[in-house]
């Protein structure tokens, strides 16, 4: 394999790793929003998942227990959000923003004594001769397990929402909760379940950062990825299969700016290059928001609206 091919393979693999935490968080938010709930606390849930995963992995020596801890931490944060918005009927936008602020502060407090510590990352899967096939081998068989889990999860969420009866019920709750309630579906319970799933996936996305991508605990290590995941949901038109495309696009932009910084070929301040993924997010949202018809057709009709069951 020549040097250029080897370098390109490395870039593609790095892009897939950069996209994986976005895939987890965005798929969880797709499920949440399909049920008609807008949770802006993804960033906070990812940070709590990251610190919980790192703490559990350092304490027990098991990255698997770290992943479980991350999902539980994300679900606890999501449960708080669900209780406030579905039971106490608090405003979803304000509560989501508060959840992010709470997660940022709490994760910094919990992880204050572990800043800079490292942990043994999840090893890439090696399949012998298959992994050694030029180009194709590393791209298909050279990743850590969570990369494959993210791909399988995207397929599972697509099937659940598009092909299963339960997925149809979730979509019905997101479109018209009053009608779903009238025919006997427990709207609040379904929304609770969707919110908890979103929290678990955000926690898993955070765990990927602290156990695989970095792997260490750094305060605020999500660096806005939760907000990018929220933008991905809109970019993907609330479709699981399109989340993959958007995540790999933003992952590619992230890796590109890192390579530009390391090469030193551009006389541009590093701070400007670091802004590229976020500028791309803003640009995509501006372009998408111009097509109001597309948003109305794809967004759940009751997204962000409180559900008041009739007596």
From TrEMBL:
It is found in: Cell membrane. Keywords: Cell membrane, Membrane, Transmembrane, Transmembrane helix. CDD domains: TM_PBP1_transp_TpRbsC_like. It is a multi-pass membrane protein. This is Nucleoside ABC transporter membrane protein. InterPro entries: ABC_transp_permease. GO terms for cellular component: plasma membrane. GO terms for molecular function: transmembrane transporter activity. The chain crosses the membrane at residues 6-25, 37-58, 64-84, 93-111, 145-161, 189-211, 217-236, 243-260, 266-288. It holds the Pfam family BPD_transp_2. It comes from Insolitispirillum peregrinum.
């Amino acid at each position: 394999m020549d040097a250029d091919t080897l370098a390109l393979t490395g870039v593609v693999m790095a892009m897939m790793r950069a996209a994986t935490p976005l895939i987890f968080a965005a798929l969880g938010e797709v499920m949440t929003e399909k049920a008609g709930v807008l949770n802006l606390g993804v960033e906070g849930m990812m940070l709590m998942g990251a610190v919980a995963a790192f703490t559990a992995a350092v304490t027990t020596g098991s990255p698997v227990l770290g992943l479980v801890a991350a999902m539980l931490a994300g679900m606890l944060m999501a449960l708080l959000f669900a209780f406030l918005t579905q039971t106490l009927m608090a405003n979803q936008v304000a509560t989501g923003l508060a959840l992010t602020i709470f997660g940022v502060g709490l994760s910094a407090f919990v992880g204050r004594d572990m800043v800079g510590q490292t942990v043994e990352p999840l090893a890439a899967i090696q399949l012998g001769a298959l992994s050694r096939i030029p180009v194709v081998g590393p791209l298909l068989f050279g990743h850590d397990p969570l990369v494959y889990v993210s791909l399988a999860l995207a397929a599972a969420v697509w099937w659940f929402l598009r092909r299963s009866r339960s997925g149809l019920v979730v979509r019905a709750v997101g479109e018209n909760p009053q009608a779903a309630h009238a025919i006997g579906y427990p709207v609040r319970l379904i929304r609770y379940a969707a919110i908890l799933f979103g929290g678990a996936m955000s926690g898993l996305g955070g765990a990927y950062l602290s156990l695989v991508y970095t792997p260490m605990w750094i305060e605020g290590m999500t660096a806005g990825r939760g907000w990018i995941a929220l933008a991905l949901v809109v970019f993907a038109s609330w479709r699981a299969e399109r989340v993959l495309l958007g995540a790999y696009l933003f992952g590619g932009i992230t890796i590109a700016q890192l390579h530009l910084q390391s090469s030193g070929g551009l006389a541009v301040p590093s701070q400007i290059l670091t802004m590229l993924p976020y500028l791309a997010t803003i640009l995509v949202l501006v372009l998408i928001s111009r097509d109001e018809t597309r948003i109305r057709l794809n967004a759940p009709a009751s997204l962000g609206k409180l559900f008041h069951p009739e007596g």
